[in-house]
Amino acid sequence: MTVPHIVILLVSLSQLECKDPALKCSIGDPVPIFHKSFQSGDLIIAGIISHIYILSNCITFGKHPSQELLDDIIYFSPSRTYQASMDLLSTRKRLMPNYKCDAKRNLLAVIGASDVDVHMVNVLNIYKIPQLTYGSASVVTENNQSPFSYWMLPNVAHQHNGILRLLLYFRWVWIGLFYLDTESTEQFIQSIIPSFSQRGVCFDFIQAFPDIGFSDGITEFVADRLEIYKMAMRSTATSLVVHGEIQTMMYLRTMYQVAKYDTAPIKTKGKVWIMTAQMEFTSLSFQRDWDMDIIIHGALSFAVHSEEVSGFFRFLQMRNPTLQKEDGFIKAFWQNAFLCTFPSFTAVSKDVQMCTGEEKLETLPAAVFETRMTGHSYSIYNAVYSVARALHGLHTFHFRPRTVADGGRRQLLNQQFWEVHRFLRAVSFNNSAGERVSFDQNRELISGFDILNWVTFPNQSFVRVKVGRIDPDIHTENLFTIREDAIVWPSMFNQTRPLSLCNENCHSAYSRRKKEGKPFCCYDCIPCPEGKISNENDMDDCFPCAEDHYPNNKQNRCLPKDISYLSYEEPLGVSLAFFSLAFSFITVLVLRIFIKHQDTPIVKANNQNLTYTLLISLLLSFLCALLFIGHPGKETCLLRQMTFGIIFSVAVSCVLAKTIIVVLAFMATKPGSRMRKWMGNQLAIFIVLFSSLIQAIICTVWGATCPPFPDFDMHSMTDAIVVECNEGWVTMFYCVLGFLGFLATVSFTVAFLARKLPDSFNEAKFITFSMLVFCSVWLSFVPTYLSTKGKYMVAVEIFSILASSAGLLGCIFSPKCYIILLRPEMNSRDQLIWRKR
Fold it and tell me: Quick check: helix, strand or coil at residue 324?
């Protein structure tokens, strides 16, 4: 017996029928490859055109179309789709569902776009007929209504993620969104708004296109499209995302054409249109010469991943409408594409060019016909072969060798063609382009998306260049790839990457602050506070540098801090070291003078031992200042303050002893005074040793418990790390200073009270002046020391040591050196007795 012919309905948008036969219109690519036969027994797959009508007459702009023309418009009518679905289940030319007497016209599968297939699914599911969709599958997937649907488009979640990654890659965080108000876009809107917002993308507007099939009149028709165009052009967003279907491109082009003839046209701004994979370049006959540059040039779109099919271009070159008898629409397409007519197709006019059938498709501009296989065509191509493979599997399974009474002829078992699902789910093959075609557990094509860049030319042609890809099957890090250098941007951007921001970037040294009442992508730029930086654009907050770095003046970089300490290489260190050595030399010189003239009355009268001890302690105090200069070390830190404290205690206690001895000497001269027994060196030695011992005990306790140690001060100075001696137990440091202050106060008080006592050289008065200088220096030292930072604290302490020591040296010894060296006649016993009287 013969195998019956099995027909697969290809519901596509490859042709639109117009009421006016002279205005046959074509949308997108016809798919002539469908007419190729597949050798699986006598299986033949043929193409049948769905019942879709549009625009009874073609609208030309420059004058308004009449209201009557708009009244005849029927756009992608669901009722027509339901009618076609019922017709498929009826006998030809008779709308009688479930009654078929045509054995050669058995419906086995439907291949269609999403907007058509969504309406057909309600009818076809009853009969468990496979439906292969090459558009969005969001509605059917969400509601789980069609277990018999197969999608030649990968999971739309991958496309949504791809759009988000594309926006983030180019830092387009301020976008506008247009969408076709259909059921298939509901999930898209619900999905992208929260997910995009979570990743920092916000929307200037979210606008649905007005219903493309219904209008109250020409005024509303024009006004709706003009309003959409103005919204797009006035938006501060440069990146505009369009989620639509196959017919959406016609809407975009109509929208721009309407705006051209507005009485108050607005300035066209550069926009980058981002289109989803469900969209395709579609056009009506009257749109043939419309500009494409504004909408299409530089646009980016997603498309189901496709490859060049071997032999496809050669196949198109061989198309001839006079030879394709089985093709019911090729002549209509031919007439619209080449602007000619066939004698047998319509009434022939004198001015109408005749079609020869020898015209070449490759000579047509891309706006009329693309000779390259698009993503939709590639999906349909794979769908046809998938069904053919499934049928071949079903055919092989049901044909089994059986011996029967009629001579052993093979017979076909009683087939249920809905069983093709079993084989369709398991389809897995390499197509002629070398790519694997198979479905996942959700009956979605296992594939990715290409990112295309549209480039237009003045002759109404364009090319779509692959500049990236979304491939969900490879490692997550390589999910998104893009070649920015291959992208041609819209002309207004002069081939520089467009920006799509609510406001200008906040440059480095600034941070963002949200504007009240505005989306989070809109913000003000505020300078970084002192001590913080921002080194990138659009930072949410400034941040401090690491401890060993500091902000530069522009507050956009962190610079490494210099190591700072009072060194011998800098002028301040050299100056202090010079004065320290100079005063030491002067002190040695004074000591040499006093030793040389130790037998003179003036030297003997001032207690030689105290004088020598005081001069030696002053010499050591000048030299101990050198311990504060240079890189702090463990030993120098330990010696600095303790050496200074003990030496100065000796010096001040010597001054105190000299003052007390002066007072006692005056009191001992009174008749019957008991003070004579206190006169002598024993009292002076006791005062010096006792005072020095107390200071030594304080320093010993300090050194034994928590001694000074080298440390790094990261915070005192902005641009430097201060290497310093940490005082350890700070309380002990102030105890040392406090004890010195106590000795100085007692010495100053005693000297002040004794300043008017008769004395040959007025020793008490000189001591008073010296202690006044000493106390003034150290009283001013404390606040100055606490208010300075870094190495300047050390310099303040050195200066205080040198100044107070110099005050003692100058006030006490300079008058005596003056007499010894310049007035030797006054340095005699007679003169001394005379001055006492």
Answer: coil
pLDDT band at 588 (very low <50, low <70, confident <90, very high): very high
Q: State percent of the chain over pLDDT 70.
A: 75
Pairwise CA distance, residues 514 & 541, whole Å: 11
pLDDT in tens, 326-385: 666 788 888 888 888 887 655 555 667 888 888 888 888 877 888 888 888 888 888 888
Residue 139: which residues within 8 A CB-CB, separation 6 or more?
A: 118, 183, 184, 186, 187
The pLDDT value recorded for residue 679 is: 56
Q: State which H helix or E strand residue 88 sits in.
A: helix 78-88
| List of residues 6+ apart from 564 with CB closer than 8 A | 717, 720, 721, 722, 723, 790, 791
Q: Among residues 694, 681, 623, which one has the least CA distance to residue 652? A: 694
Domain boundaries, the chain: 6-153+308-346+355-400+414-438, 156-306+447-493, 510-560, 571-836
pLDDT digits over 663-672, tens only? 776 665 555 5
CATH of 156-306+447-493 given 3.40.1350.10, 3.40.50.2300, 3.20.20.70, 3.40.50.300? 3.40.50.2300
Q: What sign does the dihedral 768-770-774-776 (CA atoms) show?
A: positive
Residue 71: half-sphere exposure toward Cβ, Cα within 13 Å: 3
Backbone angles phi, psi at 486, to 5 degrees: -90, -5
What's residue 328's pLDDT? 66
Between CA 289 and CA 282 the distance in angstroms is 13
**CA angle, residues 140, 29, 320, in degrees to nearest 5:** 140
Question: What DSSP letter does each residue of 748-783 carry, written as one string?
Answer: HHHHHHTTTS--SS-HHHHHHHHHHHHHHHHHHHHH
Structure token pair of residue 561: 């801090």
What is the DSSP code (8-state) at residue 536?
A: S
Closest C-alpha to 272, from 498, 502, 521, 501: 498
Which pair of tokens denotes residue 326? 């089985």
Fold of 571-836: Rhopdopsin 7-helix transmembrane proteins (1.20.1070)
CA dihedral 531, 536, 538, 542 (to 10 degrees): -20
Most confident region among 150-159, 220-229, 245-254, 278-287 by mean pLDDT = 150-159
Fold match between domain 6-153+308-346+355-400+414-438 and domain 156-306+447-493: yes
Q: Which among 135-144, 577-586, 680-689 has the top mean pLDDT?
A: 577-586
Query: Residue 318: CB partners within 8 Å, gap ≥ 6?
Result: none
Q: Which residues contact 368 (CB under 8 A, 6 or more apart)?
A: 26, 283, 288, 337, 460
**Of 306-315, 597-606, 669-678, 790-799, the least confident:** 669-678
pLDDT band, very low/low/confident/very high, at 208 (cuts 50, 70, 90): confident
**Residue 732 CB-half CA count within 13 A:** 23
Q: What gap in Å lies between CA 559 and CA 550, rounded to an integer?
A: 5
Q: Give the model confidence (pLDDT) of 81-94 as tens digits.
A: 777 777 777 776 67
Distance, CA of 607 to CA of 677 (rounded, Å): 17
Q: Band the pLDDT of 475: cuts 50, 70, 90.
A: low
Cα of 319 vs its chain's centroid, Å: 53
Q: Which CATH architecture has domain 6-153+308-346+355-400+414-438?
A: 3-Layer(aba) Sandwich (3.40)
- Top pLDDT among 403 and 195 is at 195
Q: Position 98: which residue type?
A: N
Instruction: Provide the Cα torsion 73, 76, 78, 83; round to 10°.
Output: 90
Length of the chain as a residue count: 837
- Cα–Cα distance for residue pair 309/375, rounded to 1 Å: 12
DSSP label of 9: E
Q: What is the 8-class DSSP label of residue 142? A: H
Structure tokens at 286: 């009257």
> 428, 794, 476: which is closest to 636 by C-alpha?
794
